[in-house]
Write a structure and sequence with these properties.
This protein has helices spanning 15-24, 26-49, 72-100, and strands at 109-112, 117-120. It has 124 residues and is mostly helical.
């Protein structure tokens, strides 16, 4: 077993020494320590040789398909649907605002008032 706490041979001890050693609690603590080590080693060996799980989750919906219990990709799909509808609505509002505006594009040409200088911004 390669344990450092070897058992004490009590066969050659006197009856009084065996009695004192047993009652002191030292014997029981050594025995309990040895039991724990054997249990731990057995557990490690069992886990090493047991079949491993190859399927983490049961395939399918997870047992529920109601809208109250949305999971994983469904939550993401709902979120992306909401983002898309928000973006479409904001684009629609932007287009309505441009159509209602009669000012035109204020960045295309800029006339500095009072100086008579016309500036055209590059790229517009």
């Amino acid at each position: 077993m390669n344990l450092r706490n070897k058992p004490i041979d009590r066969r050659r001890s006197s009856a009084q020494d065996r009695h004192d050693y047993n009652k002191s609690g030292a014997h029981q603590s050594r025995v309990n320590a040895l039991k724990k080590v054997k249990q731990w080693r057995g557990q490690q060996a069992w886990q090493a040789n047991s079949p491993k799980k190859t399927q983490v989750h049961t395939p399918g919906t997870g047992g529920t398909t109601s809208t109250e219990w949305r999971h994983g990709r469904h939550i993401q799909q709902d979120r992306m649907r909401d983002v898309g509808s928000t973006n479409r609505r904001s684009d629609q509002l932007k287009n309505e605002g441009i159509e209602k505006s009669n000012r035109g594009d204020i960045y295309k040409e800029y006339n500095m008032q009072g100086l008579g200088i016309d500036l055209e911004l590059p790229g517009f």
